[in-house]
Amino acid sequence: MTEEEMYVEQFRAWREEMDLSLKQIEDYIETCKKKIELNIKQRQLQVERVNIGVEEFNKWAETSNVEARMEPLVIDEENCEEMERLRQFINNLVRNE
Fold this sequence. Notes:
Blueprint: H1 3-63, H2 77-95
Helix pairs in contact: 1-2
């Protein structure tokens, strides 16, 4: 094999490695996007579950003449907006591949 042929082969191998690296990065972005969407949904469901418990507790306290009451959880809207911007950013990254 000549020096030129070795260089061509070496460059082809490097290019293939770079293609695989790019594919790995793109797959990671897609996985992160799905995780963010699932975490947002899990957060929403967690707040709903807690609020059902708070509502049941408050009803129990009222019927039991107990003064203790709990406030329902409220999702921080600013945090929600930030998460939505992050989700949109990742969606745009995936679309613009």
